[in-house]
Design goal:
This protein has six helices and seven strands. Strands 3-2-1-4-6-5-7 form a seven-stranded mixed sheet, sandwiched between helices. α1 packs across α4 and α3 packs antiparallel against α5. The longest helix is centred in the middle third of the chain and has 13 residues.
């Protein structure tokens, strides 16, 4: 009997934080040419093969919402000030109402992300998947969390500590992507 194809993973852009070190919410950041970082993240996830794209917004959400491309769904994170865990929980809860096999998680502060690196993780997206991009062995993004792990991840994350401890305890697959991109995020303007 043939196996039914899996629905593509959803893409999740974490953009709810206040960006204290950055000097303001990164959801409002733009390239020197004026392109919103959030638009770049949505485009990169779509180009890599994600289906539905979710953008978690909290700090300055009213100002950031117009920067989110119309093809993406905004996920409101009312408790954004409690840390990245709130964004991850809200995004996974929203994703659970759809049919995505997995979620591909990217922070908004990676405007130089290579779609090819994201696609390398998208190819691992299955309901039981756990995978993290690494750059010359150093952990980075994206991260793939299969649907079977969404509840456990949501219960495990706390404050500004994301899914990394869970990925470690569950022996997530480490996927080297340093040949495609530096993996660098931007914490300072």
């Amino acid at each position: 009997m043939p196996v039914a194809p899996l629905d593509p993973p959803c893409g999740v852009v974490l953009a709810a934080g206040a960006g204290r070190r950055f000097g303001g919410p990164k959801a409002l950041a733009r390239t020197p040419a004026g392109t919103p970082w959030v638009a770049l993240a949505v485009r990169a996830l779509r180009a890599a093969g994600c289906g539905e794209i979710l953008v978690a917004l909290g700090a300055s959400a009213a100002e950031a919402a117009p920067l989110v491309p119309s093809e993406a769904t905004i996920v409101a994170v009312p408790d954004w000030a409690s840390g990245v865990a709130a964004s991850l929980r809200a995004s996974l809860a929203h994703a659970a109402s759809g049919s995505a096999s997995a979620a591909v998680i990217m922070p908004v502060d990676t405007p130089d992300a290579a779609p090819a690196a994201i696609a390398r993780l998208v190819r691992r997206a299955r309901p039981d998947a756990l995978a993290q991009a690494v750059y010359d062995g150093a952990p980075g993004h994206p991260v793939v969390i299969g649907r079977a792990h969404w509840g456990a991840v949501s219960a495990a994350v706390r404050g500004d500590i994301g899914a990394r401890p869970y990925l470690i305890t569950q022996n997530a697959e480490l996927v080297e992507c340093g040949d495609l991109w530096s993996g660098a995020d931007r914490d300072e303007p």
